[in-house]
Amino acid sequence: MKKNIPLLLLAFATITATTWSQGAKKKPLPDPTPRKDAIVKLFAEEFVPITPGKGKFPASFLMGTAQGGRDNERPVHKVTFKYSFEIAKYEVTQELYHVVMGKNPAKWQGLRNSVEMCDWNECNEFCARVTKLLSERKLIGAGEVIRLPSEAEWEYCCRAGTTTDYSFADTKDIGKYAWYKVNAPGNDPPVGVKLPNPWGLYDMHGYIAEWCLDTWHPTYEGAPTDASARTTGDTKERVIRGGGYPDPAEKLRSAYRDHVALNTQKDTIGFRCIKVKTK
Fold first, then answer.
1. CA neighbor of 208 nearest in space, from 168, 185, 240
2. What is the structure's pLDDT at 187?
3. Which of 11, 81, 107, 231 could be bridged to 52 by S-S, CB 3.0 to 4.6 A?
């Protein structure tokens, strides 16, 4: 062992390599069900309050890309929030998905790895079930629900008050914040290994792409300006955001948007939840 290698870094590398190896070999995971209460409680504690118009959270932001980017990121439009919400610090993990849904469909196995291989409808079913669990345990307020974010909510949280391509200032630092084509071996590590964005949210750039509520539209013409989800148009195609481990840096930009059929199950797509009070 070289003396100049920090022991903590070496330990991290060993743990990460072991996790990836387990994912690649599809080793069976221990059943997390006996820890169900603890896992659900942890999930309830891993939400970040977002209060547009207060403190570091702007009431409005410009959604899209004015120059560069892709045509589907235009026209740039101002989105204004008139409500607060909370967003999960991490993408939904496999242990949480298992205790809520009774199964773990992920290709790259790991209890604290992000769940993937679940389609849009399954993600919404998870949100409904976990809302019920949190309500039964009084871990959620009256009238609050867990759901997928709208595309506007997602980009607002990904940008975290920034107006640059990424939520970090220097693009050469992307490897510190994201798993992507350059530094990912082709499977999932645990959530939260990389640095968070300015609002304390992990893996918004890269790792795996995330489902949003919205139906797909090829431009922002006629898009809502109140941060609500767009539900008109082709209801069979849904928006995904954030890019994933096989993608180049371009697809990890805050404004980058893509779409897939809502019944798509891929090891490159997962999801993140928000908590919001129903109107």
1. 240
2. 63
3. 81
> Would you state the structure tokens that stand for residue 75, as one six-digit string?
């026209």
The model's pTM is 0.90
CATH code of domain 7-277: 3.90.1580.10
Residue 105 burial class via C-beta count within 10 angstroms: exposed 0-12, middle 13-18, buried 19 and up? middle
**What are the domain boundaries of the chain?**
7-277
Task: Note the helical H segments in the chain.
Answer: 7-25, 36-45, 94-101, 120-136, 151-159, 174-177
Span 74-108, pLDDT tens digits: 999 999 999 999 999 999 999 999 999 999 999 99
Phi/psi of residue 96, each to 5°? -70, -45
Q: Reduced to 3 states, what is the DSSP secondary structure of residue 140?
A: coil
Give pLDDT tens digits for 37-51.
999 999 999 999 999
Mean pLDDT of the chain, nearest integer: 90
Task: Give the pairing type, strands 209-216 and 269-270.
Answer: parallel
